[in-house]
Amino acid sequence: QMQLVESGGGLVQPGGSLRLSCVASGSIFSSYNMGWYRQAPGKQRELVAVITTGGSTNYADSVKGRSTISRDNAKNTVYLQMNSLKPEDTAVYYCNAVRMVFGIPNNSWGQGTQVTVSS
Fold it and tell me: How far is residue 95's CA from residue 24's CA, in Å, rounded to a whole number?
């Protein structure tokens, strides 16, 4: 099981930027697909961005063009750079690690980091 610790959240004005980090431990980081999810109050958790073991990326339409997910396997870290932030980006952001084990997805989650976009 992977342990994940997010950081980098905070209060930012609309139009600002943040970089979230997620440090992983406890397993082989490079063998996991990594992702960022978010959950706003009263809403379901939703996918923000994912990056595969091979470096392929995918983004939710709501953040496409404004966000970049990246990973540094040497540092066991995945990042989410978010630019041009909007109030609707306000949410708790969670780091996710997943790999298939005998055909079954094995998921790990971080504790989340709060992002608040407000003037």
Answer: 9
- Give the pLDDT band of residue 1 (cuts 50, 70, 90): confident
Q: Alpha helix (H) ranges present in the chain? A: none
Q: What is the pLDDT of residue 91?
A: 98
Residue pLDDT, tens place only, 47-72: 999 999 999 999 999 999 999 999 99
- Which candidate, 25, 44, 24, places its Cα nearest to that of 92? 44
* 4: Cβ contacts below 8 Å, ≥ 6 apart: 22, 23, 24, 95, 96, 97, 108, 109, 110, 111
CB atoms within 10 A of CB 34: 27
**CB-CB contact of 81 with 68 (8 Å):** yes
